[in-house]
Amino acid sequence: MPPSGFPLSGDGRGTTLAWSDDPLLAAKFTVPAAPRHHVSRPRLLGRVGAGTHGPVTLVTGPAGAGKTALAAAWTRDGEPPGPVAWLTLDPHDAAPGIFWSYVVEALGRALPRSPGGISMPARPGSVGTSLLTRLAAATEHFPGPVVLVLDGFEKVAGRRVPAGLEFLLDHCGPLLRLVVTSRADPLLPLHRYRAEDRLTEIRGADLAFTSHEASALLHGHGLKPGDDVARALTRRTGGWAAGLRLCALAVQRTGDPDGFTRSFTGTEQAVSDYLVAEVLDTRPAATGELLLRASILDRLHPDLVNALTGRKDAEAVLAGLTRENAFVDPVPGTPWCRVHPLFADVLRAQLRIRHPALVPRLHARAARWLAGEGRVTEALEHAAEAGDWQYAASEAVRHLLAVAMFTAPDGERIERAFSRMPASVPGAGPALLAAACRLARHDRAGCRERLTEAGRHLRRSGKEPTPEAGLTHALLCLLCEPRADRQTDGRADGPGPDRQADGPGPPGPAEEAARAVADLMRRMPPELIRAHPEIEALRLYGLARSFLGRGRLAEGRRLCAEAAGACTTQASLPVQHLSLGLLAVAEAAAGALTAAEDHALRSLAVADQCGAAPDRRSGAACLALAAVACERDDQEAAHRRLGQALACRDVHEDPLLAAEAAVLRSRLELALGRWETALAALPLPGAGDAPWPAQRLALTRSAAALARGDHEAAAVAVHGTRADGPAPLLALARAHFAAGRTDRSLRLLARAGNSPDLSLPDRVGVQLLRARAALQAGDRAAAQHLLGRALEAARPERLRRPFGDAGPWLRHLLDGTGGTGPAPAPGSWLTARGGADLPDPVQPLSGRERDVLLCVQRMMSADEIADDLSLSVNTVKTHLRSVYRKLGVSRRREAVERGRELRIL
């Protein structure tokens, strides 16, 4: 028979409060049942279990964070060190007599035997020291560890109960283990418990669901969302347990996890109702009003909240909300706080309902305060929300943020703020910001239109524009280049015969704008220029773009390199990314393949270094790598890199890059023998096209026409470009050679070969066409000599495309067919390809069969092949049947594809 002492038998039957005979509520001692869709969380169960080996375990978090669920799950499914006494608290337990009556009863229910000498409290309002002393002493005689769980301690108001609990913890034996769950820290000396290593803490951040746990919760509700849905909901809810459960129920109703996730906010009715009832309405009215007015902010600073509310105690109120886990969290190391995003949604919705006219005034007030503190981007966003566009634009221009839109980490935020500005807002400042927004979206025509409007406003103002406004206007004008309709240096139609393609010429709009930017920089406060080191880099980059667009490649490449070198700070890294990418594109076009590859890879590395978002990266670097792969005849890599480039917006909308992308697509189609698709990949000429991209497109169109066998169309395509430049001269020479006009072709080659601006691919092309002409004239020695020079020039850069495009005659010259002299040794660099080794055909192709297959790749008919190879049509057909048999195919296209797979082509 167990000894008496506790006034309870341990089964709880008939137990009452001593002063009223009211029964104690048995439900308060009942461990909550597991929810129907319970998610096991071993990582947290283990922490609670480890904590109960010490005196105190504290679990705190906001409403619905899963505190009670965790403690109950551990009680049911964990491995407690001994019996667990569970007590669910409510506001009545703030009376010490009631609280300690329930504690004594809970321990009595948990213990198999109760130590003697303890009586129930006699009054609700107080307990004597004797009871606490006797209870502390009784813990020394527990048969083993006993865990007391106090669930919902935030409901126990006042200091009297915490003081008694502190006394018990300071004087009890080591067998009593306390677990407290609460929305706020209890009024216990937690700092001392930490220092004494007597405290285990599980906070709101620990309670937050991981995406894996969120996925398990959704699956428990019979849903089968993808990992992206679970991650998105976890991110949006901050891992808040109640929010995720409410989301799961809502998704059950809609049956569309993806659609719900895209549209989910804190204004979802179930979530809103919960947060209003459990968080907002439980605060004092004045605190609730403070939260509503501060809800326009993403982050809360006490002084800013005071400015919005007219109060002076925001710091104390915010500190209290943080302590109470009221969905307000401190930003470590700063005076700022952050409101949980779902609660912020609810507060903003409530503000619009209760005080709709107040919203724009609050945003305007926040804009002024933030601007005064130097937080200009945030100020602009609030001014935009207030509809105060004049103030927003003037601040943006004054701080050069129209320029920073292209480079700053928060440039996208600036663009997003001003993209909502109505077109009707008057003034130079709004027009400049509208122009910058359009340029950020690569809408150069729209940018120029708004710049024209801004220029009119600046001239009409009656006073000299501020240096900031003038610089913004000039730099945006520069970055809008190149375009052909305003060139003043006479280069749209090319230089005259007596002027080199890269001669300086008179200054154009780009040079004038660049000079204006440099002059205005000298007039501005030095500290402002130091704050924007990207301006000089942008000036050089804009000038480089203009020069490249006009075909002044040497100057353009030099300026790209200077722009990249001028980027010496983190803020200017986005310009370095752009400059290196554009430099790589220009180098690839010039045949400097090694340098192009190096600069392209550096551009990609810089983009990673500065954390550029995927949708704000330039595709120039990938475009350059695709061009390098194409020139080296690595078609697989070229297709892959071109696909990566085309995923970037600027490759479609920047005229320089769009032209290069079209050139590459066409060349890759030509390599597959699809000349019709190659032609279709090239846009039709436009009146406003800049000279260099227009010429690149025209020359590629000429090559596609020549592959089709239409030498007249090939020649026509070249007309309208700079016909005396080396590249057009070579294209015309090829067209005339195909037409049988060899003498005229050689004269054009002589002019092209003497040009100092000859690119490496064109230099190799000139030598190869001369070699073919010599071979046709029967001078095999001269042909071999010229081929050797072409190989020698191409070898350092591993330039292969001109040799692949040359045709079957080149193979004859390389293998010595039809001659007695030694053939030039091509070396492994010419025949090597990227990719894994592939099996050989059943039988190797003969040299003549390879020639026929090369002609098939060029979409030549049997008659054309016979004429080109000086064979009869029947012999060609015999070779074709042999090729099909050896390659295991039955059609021309299959033969070409198989030939490429086997590296025959």
From TrEMBL:
Residue numbers spanned by region Disordered: 486-513
InterPro entries: P-loop_NTPase, Sig_transdc_resp-reg_C-effctor, TPR-like_helical_dom_sf, TPR_MalT, Tscrpt_reg_LuxR_C, WH-like_DNA-bd_sf, WHD_MalT
UniProt-recorded name of the protein: Helix-turn-helix transcriptional regulator
Boundaries of every HTH luxR-type domain copy: 838-903
GO biological process, one term: regulation of DNA-templated transcription
Domain of life: Bacteria
Family annotation (PANTHER family): DNA-BINDING TRANSCRIPTIONAL ACTIVATOR DEVR_DOSR
Keywords: DNA-binding, Transcription, Transcription regulation
GO molecular function, one term: DNA binding
Provenance organism: Streptomyces klenkii
